[in-house]
């Protein structure tokens, strides 16, 4: 019998450093019937576990879910455990996750998301063009690839790279009125979560210059501009910015009510 993990435990760790690798092993028919996924999940065929298991990072735990938390996920988690992975099946599967009221993402096969989607935007990113890749990698498609190119070439390079353009005019994933591209990704993948909504407010205010709308936005803007000065390679800049957004999301999810002052006032 495989170990189990509750949906509440998965949700509490979601997108944090402690988060397990999440695997959706539902059949194609089950996925077609409910084309929603736990955020950050990869789809895998349980019949091929011996082939894809080697791609998993052994230092991270693994959480496997199926439609209802029964035999398929338990058997796959047990198979991974036999191969030396710290794997558990998700109690109740996707049905249990939905019953608990946690947010899911809408699968978008037209973008190959999840599944190794490809995205391209203008070079020298500052806010949106770093925040969107973080959102995609942590919640939508962990295997996504991102490219940066000179602004006049984005559409041409999108075709050459078989990638979706974002954060340019007249594309699906871009600004909409007072909302920024980060908001467009949340809307297009139908992702709703209180912590992400809090982060979206910060990103939007920093990206659109509406700094008065978020106390944290000026800090995000300052850090982003400073990173851009220090790091001239855009892909390296993205990798460094991932840690910034990881920290900001952790603040939104866990530490937003925490205060800090030193020295403490005398009693």
Describe the structure.
- Strands 1-6-5-2-4 form a 5-stranded parallel beta sheet. It has a 3-stranded parallel beta sheet with strand order 9-8-10, with helices on one face. Strands 3-7 form a two-stranded antiparallel sheet.
- It folds into 2 domains: 3-103, 3-Layer(aba) Sandwich (Oxidized Rhodanese, domain 1), CATH 3.40.250.10; 109-255, no CATH class.
- The longest helix has 22 residues, at 234-255.
- The protein has 11 helices and 10 strands.
- The protein is 43% helix and 12% strand.
- It has 267 residues and is α/β, with parallel strands linked by helices.
- Strand 8, helix 6 (128-140) and strand 9 (145-149) form a beta-alpha-beta unit.
- The model has no long low-confidence stretch (mean pLDDT 96).
The number of domains: 2
> What order do the strands of the largest sheet run in, or round the barrel if closed?
1-6-5-2-4
As a percent range, the share of strand residues is 5-15%
Uncertain runs are none
Work out the helicity level: 40-55%
**What's the β-strand tally?**
10
Radius of gyration: 20 Å
Order of helices and strands: EHEHEEHEHEHEEHEHEHHHH
**Most strands sheet:** 5 strands, parallel
Nearest-integer average pLDDT: 96
Number of helices: 11
Distance between the termini: 56 Å
Structural class: alpha/beta
Quick one: overall form? globular
């Amino acid at each position: 019998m495989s170990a189990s993990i509750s949906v509440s435990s998965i949700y509490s760790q979601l997108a944090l450093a402690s988060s397990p690798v999440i695997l959706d092993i539902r059949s194609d028919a089950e996925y077609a019937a409910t084309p929603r996924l736990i955020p950050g999940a990869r789809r895998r065929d349980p019949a091929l576990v011996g082939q894809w298991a080697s791609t998993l990072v052994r230092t991270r735990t693994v959480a496997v879910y199926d439609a209802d938390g029964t035999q398929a996920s338990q058997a796959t988690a047990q198979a991974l455990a036999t191969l030396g992975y710290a794997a558990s099946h998700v109690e109740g599967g996707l049905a249990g996750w939905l019953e608990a009221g946690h947010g899911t993402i809408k699968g978008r096969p037209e973008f190959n998301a999840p599944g190794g989607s490809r995205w391209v935007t203008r070079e020298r990113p500052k806010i949106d063009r770093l925040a969107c890749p973080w959102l995609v990698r942590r919640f939508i498609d962990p295997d996504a690839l991102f490219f940066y190119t000179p602004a006049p070439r984005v559409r041409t390079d999108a075709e050459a790279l078989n990638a979706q353009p974002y954060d340019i005019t007249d594309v699906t994933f871009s600004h909409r009125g007072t909302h920024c591209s980060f908001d467009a990704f949340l809307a297009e993948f139908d992702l709703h979560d209180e912590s992400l909504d809090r982060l979206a407010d910060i990103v939007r205010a920093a990206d659109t210059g509406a700094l008065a709308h978020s106390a944290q936005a000026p800090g995000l803007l300052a850090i982003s501009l400073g990173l851009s000065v220090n790091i001239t390679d855009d892909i390296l800049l993205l990798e460094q910015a991932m840690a910034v957004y990881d920290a900001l999301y952790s603040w939104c999810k866990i530490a937003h009510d925490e205060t800090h002052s030193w020295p403490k006032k005398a009693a």
